[in-house]
Design goal:
Length: 246
């Protein structure tokens, strides 16, 4: 279980909902701290070190969406958004805020804890109770500069700085491109694949997501080596094993 040194900040203005989420978090063996607003959460983060922040979209004062954007700009902490059911606008915020995942109210307890676990595994691989050395584990993975991508385990690790992580959306894009390395993948295909998993993705988000991923894995995002654009064909992934494209 993912229990070691896990502290989760719950940003929720509804006391009953905050208490419910706290109970779920603590039942998993994690520590929970709460804040009723984004402003209070910001103050708390000055004193507390947390591994994940759970943010309600509809907060008083600074909105949950704006807070998530601000948080993501300054940290790679895991972010799970809690959105209102039936709101299409809320459901696209995963890309807009760079949140790692979202859950829709009303949610099943097992769904919330499963999403939290998935985000923790991606953003804090050191919390996993495994003995193998990360560098050795990824020798057979796809290499993209400092990054090693293991499609079987659905994990990506920056060997030069393990604290750097990809969001769920960024990994989903990388996974799609990595299925057919050195072969262009159309923008329409990417959108279709992303949309098959969630309705958060809309047409313009593909380009935003590509830009975000380039900023994470490219030495120079303005002159990308690994994720390149093929005019009229889409995007193509070049791995280190395949060599640098001409």
């Amino acid at each position: 279980m993912l229990t070691q040194k896990v502290k989760i900040l719950i940003v929720e203005d509804d006391p009953d909902m905050a208490e419910l989420i706290c109970d779920l978090v603590e039942a998993e063996g994690w520590m929970a701290v709460t804040a009723p607003s984004a402003e209070a959460a910001q103050d708390m983060l000055q004193r507390e070190t947390v591994q994940l922040v759970l943010i309600d979209h509809n907060l008083p004062g600074l909105s949950g969406r704006a807070f998530a954007q601000r948080l993501r700009a300054g940290t790679d902490v895991g972010i799970v958004m809690v959105t209102a059911a039936g709101s299409a606008t809320d459901r696209v915020l995963g890309l807009e805020t760079a949140a790692d995942d979202y859950v829709v109210k009303p949610f099943e307890p097992i769904e919330l804890t499963a999403r939290i676990k998935a985000v923790l595994r991606r953003t804090h691989p050191q919390l996993r109770q495994e003995k193998e050395n990360e560098r050795d584990q990824y020798q057979a993975a796809i290499r993209l500069g400092d990054w090693a991508v293991d499609l079987a385990r659905r994990r990506a690790v920056c060997l030069g700085d393990p604290s750097r992580t990809l969001t769920a959306a960024e990994f989903a894009l990388l996974e799609i491109l990595a299925e057919t390395p050195n072969v262009p993948v159309s923008r329409a295909h990417i959108l279709d694949r992303l949309g098959a998993e969630t309705d958060r993705f809309i047409d313009r988000n593909v380009d935003v997501l590509v830009l975000r991923l380039r900023r994470k894995i490219e030495g120079n995002p303005d002159l990308p080596r690994h994720i390149q654009t093929r005019r009229g064909k889409g995007y193509v992934l070049h791995t280190d094993e395949a060599g640098t494209p001409s």
